[in-house]
């Protein structure tokens, strides 16, 4: 992180990720919905910026962005916050995906990676990126070459640590293996070149697959784990209604768990989170229980819930103080598995 403890945050739980001992608030902030993938993302402007400030105020120091969100506008937005408060924030961004006319394409060529890093630094208005993550492997470039270029950026002082994203891992399972088998093979290869400080992959109450092998792999090697989509793209918050519909530019418009039928079928999961929340007090929300469950999966885990709303940024940060009991965790384990699959 850019520096010292911020005054008044002594009470906020901090976690250490990676062998490089990077200290962050236990709950981060996913900045993607401010510019990409969700309805209304592009219209929020200053309201989103205020959400970043509220997150930092509440001790959510890790701001997760990517050059492709927008594209580029998400980093510009985060850069506006960093310009004022670099010392309060830990910035993680990503490289390796380009938004084309029709498709998103991977580019892991070393020369491109180095140029993309300089461009991200400019947009983020900083001279160092705390965590630089490979967004997707480029099938045309050996991952060792891409990772080697990223390691050069650490040696050049432009980046403090490296991370690997495994959110696109579903293809591995379709070819017969477990969801993260291919990710672990990739991690072994890049570890030969330069240490991995963090892995980012989906982990939530309704998508717990990373618990099988990826999370233990990270824990055993002192690799941090950033939990993407910890709120199940908003479903686990209990604020969405089956059949409400999504704008065409919203990822949920094509997501198999967000048809009216599947949202209705998955209501027992939300009801379970609601029951647990009620035991902890009238102010506690299902979203906070969902995040506390992610936090309970290991000291190396940092959820990065995405939001563009100030209120939710504050609410999500506060989940760091919620401790689930063994009974709560057992109840979550008994919830039905999610219906609706990509396979
Ligand atoms: N590496 C990758 O390939 C990859 C892929 C996906 C995501 N990610 C990272 O993971 C982060 C989180 O994933 P995500 O944002 O897609 O999914 P998420 O965190 O599971 O859910 C985000 C959704 O939940 C809503 N929400 C957030 N807090 C809420 C609350 N307290 N109450 C009610 N609703 C709430 C948000 O609404 P509003 O937007 O309206 O505030 C948004 O629609 C992203 O921001 C990104 O940084 C990475």
Describe the structure in your own words:
By secondary structure, the protein is of the alpha/beta class. The chain has a single domain (14-231, 294-323), classed as TIM Barrel (Alpha-Beta Barrel), CATH 3.20.20. The protein is 36% helix and 15% strand. It has helices at 46-57, 73-85, 110-124, 143-155, 170-174, 181-191, 214-220, 260-265, 267-280, 286-295, 310-318, 326-334, and strands spanning 14-17, 22-25, 29-30, 62-64, 90-95, 97-99, 104-106, 129-134, 159-165, 198-202, 224-228, 301-303. The strands form three sheets. An eight-stranded parallel sheet has the order 3-4-5-8-9-10-11-12. It has a two-stranded antiparallel sheet with strand order 1-2. Mean pLDDT is 92; it is low at 1-8. It binds NADP nicotinamide-adenine-dinucleotide phosphate. NADP nicotinamide-adenine-dinucleotide phosphate binds next to helix 11.
How would you concisely characterize the structure shown here?
With 343 residues, the chain is of the alpha/beta class. The chain has one domain (14-231, 294-323): TIM Barrel (Alpha-Beta Barrel). The chain has helices at 46-57, 73-85, 110-124, 143-155, 170-174, 181-191, 214-220, 260-265, 267-280, 286-295, 310-318, 326-334; strands spanning 14-17, 22-25, 29-30, 62-64, 90-95, 97-99, 104-106, 129-134, 159-165, 198-202, 224-228, 301-303.
């Amino acid at each position: 992180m850019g520096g010292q403890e911020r005054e008044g945050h002594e009470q906020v739980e901090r976690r250490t990720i990676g062998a490089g001992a990077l200290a962050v608030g236990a709950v981060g902030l996913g900045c993607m919905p401010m510019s990409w993938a969700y309805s209304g993302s592009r219209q929020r402007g200053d309201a989103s910026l205020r959400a970043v400030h509220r997150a930092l105020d509440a001790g959510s120091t890790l701001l997760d962005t990517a050059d492709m969100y927008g594209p580029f506008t998400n980093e510009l937005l985060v850069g506006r916050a960093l310009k004022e408060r670099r010392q309060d924030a830990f910035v993680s961004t990503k490289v390796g995906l380009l938004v084309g006319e029709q498709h998103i394409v991977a580019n892991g060529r070393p020369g491109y990676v180095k140029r993309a890093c300089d461009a991200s630094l400019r947009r983020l208005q900083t001279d160092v990126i705390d965590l630089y993550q490979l967004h997707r492997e480029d099938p045309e470039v050996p991952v060792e070459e891409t990772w080697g270029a990223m390691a050069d950026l650490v040696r050049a002082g432009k980046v403090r640590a490296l991370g690997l994203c495994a959110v696109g891992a579903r293809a591995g399972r379709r070819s017969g293996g477990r969801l993260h088998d291919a990710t672990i093979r990739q991690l072994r290869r890049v570890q030969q070149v330069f240490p991995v400080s963090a892995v980012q992959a989906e982990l939530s109450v309704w998508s717990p697959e990373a618990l099988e092998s990826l999370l233990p792999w990270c824990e055993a090697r002192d690799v941090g784990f950033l939990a993407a989509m910890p709120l199940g793209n908003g479903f686990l918050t209990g604020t969405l209604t089956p059949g409400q519909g999504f704008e065409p530019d919203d990822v949920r418009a094509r997501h198999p768990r967000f048809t009216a039928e599947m949202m209705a079928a998955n209501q027992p999961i939300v009801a379970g989170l609601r029951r647990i929340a009620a035991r902890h007090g009238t102010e506690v929300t299902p979203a906070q229980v969902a995040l506390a469950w992610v936090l309970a999966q290991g000291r190396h885990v940092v959820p990065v819930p995405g939001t563009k709303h100030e209120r939710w940024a504050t609410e999500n940060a506060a989940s760091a103080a919620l401790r689930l009991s063994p009974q709560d965790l057992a109840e979550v384990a008994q919830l039905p598995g999610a219906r609706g699959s990509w396979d």
